[in-house]
Design goal:
One of its GO terms (molecular function) is metal ion binding. Among the domains are: 30-129, Orthogonal Bundle (Endonuclease III, domain 1), CATH 1.10.340; 234-288, Orthogonal Bundle (Arc Repressor Mutant, subunit A). The protein contains 15 helices and two strands. The chain has helices at 7-18, 31-41, 46-59, 63-67, 71-78, 85-100, 109-113, 120-129, 140-151, 162-171, 176-192, 211-214, 234-247, 254-257, 264-277, and strands at 281-283, 286-288. β1 and β2 form a beta hairpin. α2 (31-41) packs antiparallel against α3 (46-59) and α13 crosses α15 (264-277). The longest helix has 17 residues, at 176-192. The chain is globular, with a radius of gyration of 21 Å. The structure holds a DNA duplex.
DNA sequence: AAGGCGTGGTA
DNA sequence: TTACCAAGCCT
């Protein structure tokens, strides 16, 4: 492997021939559309995002359209994507863009990161993919690809660090447009080829330039991130409650929620948490979406 | 700064 | 079946 391997070019060429045709990659997608796709894709497989994203874009083509709705509509339209607080924050972001930015999605990292639910990754993704700026866009896929190809490690660390951003920035072409393409390509490579558990090095454009491949492709020993319990946790019960309220046209009485889980303490804790988070409100006839 | 936060698919 | 994983963010 060569020290100055043109990683960006190799991956970008591969991307040109192998990219999935995701709807938000189509020409003419607005910055708002890109932002929504990025938030929906946080911790959620892209396959499940597609239909929901299409519905949202048709229904709320600009931030102001969403901002004009009750937050509960965003939560309901979120469906089963998971982590519904993202819907809440996306609605809040829409309110902020409509109110503070003249309904135009900001194009600076600082302004983007100031929006609810927009962090290090999503801010740079929007700046790069929507505004075609040159920024390192580092998600779990990119971290894994860089960890393997450059550092020769089987996996990256648990969270994105400043060092990850610097390492990735180094790989990007100088040209902003080319850098944006390279970032999308690195993500796609991690999603389709350089996967966590079953990488397909035989079809990888970086195989000849990959430090990890050269060392024999030893798979990571433990989990890449902290294993999460789910069954019987508060999160589980919160999800059960939200599923009921999403389907309900009218407020739901407390007794009607008793059937979702057998332990009263956990039920109560879940419900209280949801109300505290603003995902549920208690009104006259019972509990409902805000 | 470690842990909380949904949901469904795959091996 | 259980365990891990999937375009993170917030506190």
């Amino acid at each position: 492997m060569s020290q100055s391997a043109p990683i960006a070019r190799l991956v970008s060429d591969w991307f040109a021939a192998n990219a999935r045709d995701l709807p938000w990659r189509e020409p003419g997608t607005t910055a708002w559309g890109v932002l929504v796709s990025e938030v929906m894709s946080q911790q959620t497989p892209v396959r499940r995002v597609e239909p929901v994203w299409r519905e949202w874009m048709e229904r709320w083509p600009t931030p102001a359209d969403l901002a004009a709705e009750p937050t509960g509509e965003a939560i309901r339209a979120w469906g089963r994507l998971g982590y519904p607080r993202r819907a809440l924050r996306l609605h809040a972001a829409a309110v902020a863009v409509a109110g503070d930015h003249d309904n135009v999605v900001p194009d600076t990292i600082a302004a983007l990161e100031a929006l609810p639910g927009i962090g290090t990754y999503t801010a740079r993704a929007v700046a790069a993919f929507a505004h075609r700026q040159r920024h390192p866009v580092v998600d779990t896929n990119v971290r894994r690809v860089v960890a393997r190809a450059v550092a020769g490690n089987p996996d990256a660390g648990m969270a994105t660090t400043a060092a990850d951003l610097r390492a990735t920035e180094t790989l990007l072409p100088d040209d902003a447009e080319a850098a944006a393409v390279a970032s999308a390509a690195l993500m796609e490579l991690g999603a389709l080829i350089c996967t966590a558990r079953a990488p397909v090095c035989a079809r990888c454009p970086l195989a000849d330039d990959c430090a990890w491949h050269a060392k024999g492709e030893a798979l990571p020993e433990g989990p890449s991130r902290k294993p999460q319990k789910y069954t019987g946790t508060d999160r589980h019960v919160r999800g059960l409650i939200m599923a009921v309220l999403r389907e309900a046209d009218d407020p739901v009485a407390r007794v009607a929620l008793d059937t979702v889980w057998h332990e009263p303490d956990r039920r109560e804790r879940a419900l209280t948490g949801l109300v505290a988070d603003g995902l549920v409100v208690e009104g006259a006839g019972g509990f409902r979406l805000p």
